[in-house]
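Regression check, calcium ion case 572:
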Amino acid sequence: MKNHEIAYILYEIANMLEIKGENFFKIRAYRNAAHEIENLAIDIQKLVNQNALKEIDGVGEAISGKIYEILEKGTCRYYEELKAEVPRGLVDMLKIPGLGAKRIKVIYDNLKIASIEELEKAANSKQLQTLPGIGVKTEQSIIRGIQMIKGRAGRYLLSTALSIAQDMVTRLSSLPSVEKAQIAGSLRRKKEMVGDIDLLVVSNSHQQVTESFLKFPEIREVIAKGSTKTSVILELGIQVDLRVVKPESFSAALLHFTGSKEHNTKLRSLALRKGLRLNEYGIINLDDGEIIYPQSEKEIYKELGMPYIIPEIREDTGEVEAAMKDSLPNSVNLKDIKGDLHVHSNWSDGVSSIEEIALYAKKLGYEYIAITDHSKSLKIARGLDEEKLKRQLELIYELNKKIDGIKILSGIEVDILSNNLLDFNDDILEQLDVVVASIHTGFKQERDKITGRIIRACENPNVDIIAHPTGRLLGRRAPYDVDMELVLQACAQTNTILEINSSPDRLDINDKLARKAKALGLKMSINTDAHVAERLNDIKYGVWVARRGWLEKDDVINTLPFECLLKELNSK
Ligand code: DGT
Ligand code: CA
Ligand code: CA
Ligand code: ZN
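Current build output:
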């Protein structure tokens, strides 16, 4: 059990106690303990081993007993009893902004409403405003609150969903009744955020697979159990749809459940024009009613008269038409990447030393790696001043003599200051191999101002790359108000490279912007912005953005061999 899993259960207990109308202090005690555990710097199991659980603020006799129980069994009796007693939907309703436990209880007691869907219907049909303590205004605010969580809830970072899904695929694959298990849906298309996890399993025994699957300990709730599909909600809130298919239908099912729906629809109407019906079981010839079971997705595309289309671009944004004309992109691959041009070391706010980073990059098979620590104004990130940067340059020079098989490029992530200027003068910047410029302050400035700051940076001949151009954090922070059309134009005019930041919560620029940038002839660099050597592995997320943006190897400068890269960086 991880700390956050234990914290989750304690929060849930607090929520259910609140719905039940229990004592305020008791509820607060559970919330406080959950909060402390969530923020603990060490693994809670270690504290237990040292018999030091009660040293956590807010953890007394009662709560520590439950933590022991949870660590041992994955859950505790108290939690299970509460879950049996309090309808799940009521706890979910607590997430609606402006709706507290008291009102939820009033609504439940009077109308027996126990889910957000029912609540939304009741609010829309004006049933809530008649209840004690709830007027027209509250009803309206409940409607807005539901809309808000609907827009946000239910979408998860690709990285989160992928690690859960891969773990499940491994366990499913090891079941004796399972021939093969595979990820489908938007997760296979590598969308930046996904609605749920779609899994496809090949087996001759649907029932055995389903039975074993439902025993997975992280399942909180079963929401549908049919003859072809089982849907569950995990403790973390994410939904998993499991479909079991017969071996002969695997490829047709994979194509179908990978989607997108729009891509499928287009393929199906194309098939019909050829006298074929395409569905999740196979391809039916409408003349003689015979069914073909294709051996691969490629065979299906071939049957429809086109080459294989990679999952990442199956969004019906022109890929089928391009395939018919045999003009699909020759998509960039992970193995094309020869280096990373945006990495932080322990000289600023990173964790790894430059040597560790270089050796890790070498292990990944890279030819080069750029060290781009923060610049002096970014105090919270321990940005480097001119003096420290000079010393770093000397160290990089030495390390390059010492380490074979990888080139370390000197660089900086120079701040684009709120006043339009860069954090370093040109005489400093021109000494570096790579200059990455980015915004870390003044996010709330007006559109013209922010756009102007970035364009000004593009105009500086020493700036090679604009990093995380929109500043968004997925699910947490909207982009700052920047006119990306103008930024793209400025990059095109000044020969400035745009970054695809691979950090899973950034993915900035996104797939759509990448495609636009390519259309303007821009070059991009897929960088990790890693702050610890292992995170150089995040590069795959950036490659997926690039593939979704129809990019080819030539559009990405860090696919170039070392000498060509230097030429490209010096060409501005
Ligand atoms: P998501 O989950 O919102 O991130 O997006 P998807 O694409 O994973 O959507 P999901 O999970 O509802 O369905 C998985 C795939 O199943 C979808 O991409 C295509 C296929 N599919 C689902 N419903 C339909 C449908 O009504 N018609 C067709 N043609 N395909 C469907
Ligand atoms: Ca899905
Ligand atoms: Ca689904
Ligand atoms: Zn950075």
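Comparison notes: The chain has four domains: 3-151, 156-245, 261-324, 334-570. Residues 185, 196, 198, 241 surround calcium ion (ligand 3) (CB under 6 Å). No diff flagged against the previous build.
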